[in-house]
Amino acid sequence: MKFNIEAVNGNLTEQLTHKINTKTKPLGSLGKLEEIALKIGQIQNTLNPELSNPAIVVCAGDHGITEEGVSPFPQEVTFQMVMNFLGGGAAINVFTRQNNIKLLVADAGVNFDFESNGKLIDIKVAKGTKSFANGAAMTIDECNKAMENGAGLVENLHKEGSNIIGFGEMGIGNTTSASALLCAFTKCSATEATGAGTGLDAQGIARKASVIENALKLHKDITDPTEILATFGGYEIATITGAMLKAAELKMTILVDGFIVTSALLAAYHMNKTVLDYCLFSHKSNEKGHEVMLNYLNANPVLDIQMRLGEGTGSAVAYPIIKSAVDFLNEMSSFEDAGVSDKE
User: Fold this and answer.
1) Residue 149's pLDDT is what?
2) Read out DSSP for 253-320?
3) Which of 154, 165, 185, 193 could form a disulfide linkage to 179, CB 3.0–4.6 angstroms apart?
4) What is the pLDDT of residues 249-304, one digit of tens each?
């Protein structure tokens, strides 16, 4: 798939910086909020940015790699958690309600037949991927279909007036996919990339790393980004990849969540590096491997509070800080406005 992503326009950077620096505060005293305000002003190409109709899309999918014993939880937890999302009882429900963020839940490839439900978006490509221990997780056509589905979701939200979007995921086995994608895209080792996921002990982590290492050897000749995503990814990850690329094409601000969502961004980045111009990294996940991703992307996350839940929770929790950055830029007085003496 091709996306026409324009680099962020830097024409207002000097004016935005001046506006930030002349607020009634010591220079740089709002720290990371100043960086966020500058970035959103650049993305929206305005001195007065606005956050409109924030949304988080949680995509769910199952993974054939669970056949290799890489998760302490059974696969049916995926559909059970989707039902929890729909019932409003998960952490992402709590945080999106708290911060007035629209929440959408999408079945990208869960191994379950859901009853027709007005709350669940049905974009199922197939009932879970195949095990990438033996072959590709999905075909190129399936991968492209998932990406198209993600792009369509974002396009609809943009038409409804949203200009800032985050993504979450649910899928037993997806930390294994994310770790494999991290290795394939950055050439780090399986040991560096592999963590506890949903709660593996040291022996389980070692087994998971071994599964990934063997799969990387099996697929060592694959270099095309879409083919890498199809080989190691999940339907929810591919859906998020396409969604991020479309969001950047539409000049939306992208809130990047934790380990799984950043693996989708790695794929998007290798398809079109300009996508990073539109990304704000909400937090540093406590899942091993996320720091490697962040360093590779030269990312400076908003929060580091030892979260590793997924579901988009890091983005939902970070959103009020993002809003504070925009609000101070628009509402805080300058020295001149307030009649306060600036330093000589």
Assistant:
1) 98
2) EEEE-SHHHHHHHHHHHHH-GGGGGGEEE-B--SSTTHHHHHHHTT---SB-S-----TTHHHHHHHH
3) 193
4) 999 999 999 999 999 999 999 999 999 999 999 999 999 999 999 999 999 999 99
Residues of the chain with pLDDT under 50: none
Helix, strand, coil percentages (3-state) for the chain, rounded to 5, are 50, 10, 40
- Rounded Cα distance, 309 and 84, in Å: 15
The SS3 assignment for 15 reads helix
Got the DSSP string for 73-141?
S-TTHHHHHHHHHHHT-SHHHHHHHHTT-EEEEEEEE-SS-PPP-TTEEE---SSSPPPTTTS-SS-HH
Q: Within 13 A of 24's CA, how many CA atoms are on the CB side?
A: 12
Residues 6+ apart with CB under 8 A from 174: 61, 63, 234, 236, 237, 260
311 is catalytic: yes
Count of Cβ atoms closer than 10 Å to residue 118 Cβ? 6
**Residue type present at position 126:** A
Structure tokens of 283? 């937090």
Range 325-328 contact pairs with CB under 8 angstroms and sequence separation of 24 or more: 325/30, 325/33, 325/34, 325/36, 325/37, 325/40, 326/36, 326/37, 326/40, 326/49, 326/50, 326/51, 328/23, 328/30, 328/33, 328/37
Domains and CATH numbers, the chain: 55-320 (3.40.50.10210)
Q: Sign of dihedral through CA atoms 60, 63, 68, 74?
A: positive
Identify the active-site residue in 35, 311, 331, 344: 311
pLDDT tens across 192-203, in order? 999 988 889 999
